[in-house]
Amino acid sequence: MELHEFNEKYFLETKSPAFARTLLDCKRVAASNANVLLIGESGTGKDIAAQYIHALSRRADKPFIAVNCNAYTESLLEPELFGVEPGIFSDTIRRRIGKFELADKGTLFLDAIGDVSLTTQVKLLRAIETKELERLGGNNKKLLDFRLITATSRDLPTDVINGSFREDFFYRISTIVIRIPPLRDRKEDLEGMISFFLKKAQEENDIRIDRIEDKVWEFLINYDYPGNVRELKNTIDRMVVLSENHVITTEGIPILYNLKRISPVSSYPTNELVSWKEFKRRSEREYLEWALRQTGWNISATARELSMSTRQIFNKINEYNIEKPF
Which residues contact 297 (CB under 8 A, 6 or more apart)? Predict the structure, then answer.
């Protein structure tokens, strides 16, 4: 990936001192082979920062391999990362190349590293320290050359204290730590980012926008975006699709938001009276759907924000038959 192929223009242009420091840190570490840990809230663009570092590095013309660790169970993550030799599993017919091997000579980006189990952390630690790989079910070790970038929205030092994250693994992956600030801390960039995503959404949906109503613009500028850049992009996409006669109206705002709070405000028809139990059920379902969208359907992050367990979140998703939109 050459720098000229880095397409996220909004990421490079900033008026925010906080984000300017982030970009400078990315540039400084790019030339090295040091392990980098990107920290920040969900949706801030840690994956884009990882791509940016790779694009500035000497490995830019080599593979950039990204893995969202939260998307796999423990039993599936290890084969995904280390690869599998034929015969180790009953359904394994052919050799499977893991992400570590695919990233050889390039960059391996492990997102949601804070959600990896303690058992897998041990295996990752060894692979990162030795740069040697042995596929599951194999006997031959292969020496690899990769640059490691990890990311998390968790408070890893606290997790280390609590015993849910290995101290040795933490220090191994955090040679350099770069914080990606939340969107509410870089409001100076909002106008430019809105314009960027607005243009992109028009091109992708083949819809022309001539005007944005004043109330909508006021909402876009003043809202705190707890889902950060991801939420901003999704909001703009929705507004463009729901525009009327090339005008973005208040109908395009995803939910009736209270601009002074983070949470959405539920709204029901005034001519419909339901039981208190039914009202609570609807409200809970709506809020859970909203919370899942803000975290990009990161179950662990949603559970933390709502002070619930991941099992409780899964149970509620099943209870209300909530479907992932992507």
Answer: 324, 326
